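To: structure desk
From: M.T.
Subject: fold request, one chain
Message: Could you run this one when you get a chance? Sequence is below, nothing fancy, just the single chain.
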Amino acid sequence: MERVFFVNKRQIRITKAEDARELVSAASGCDFDIDVYYNRVIVDAKSILGVMSLDFTQPLTVEYNGKNQELEQVLNRFALC
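Reply: Done. Structure tokens follow.
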């Protein structure tokens, strides 16, 4: 049987270190991979150093293939409308 993965993709904007910590904390509670990227820069959302290295002036894209209520709440707070 072939496994099919559905990738969720969300656009967010974080503006300060506290936002980054909140995102990393929520991502760390997930048992699936979560990537954050813009342009050609891709980092693991569970890495505070990776997330802090991103350009907070740019919209960020979050990709993940699982479900977690806490993560969804955090992404909703930072979502671009």
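Reply (cont.): The longest strand covers residues 8-12. Let me know if you need anything else for the meeting.
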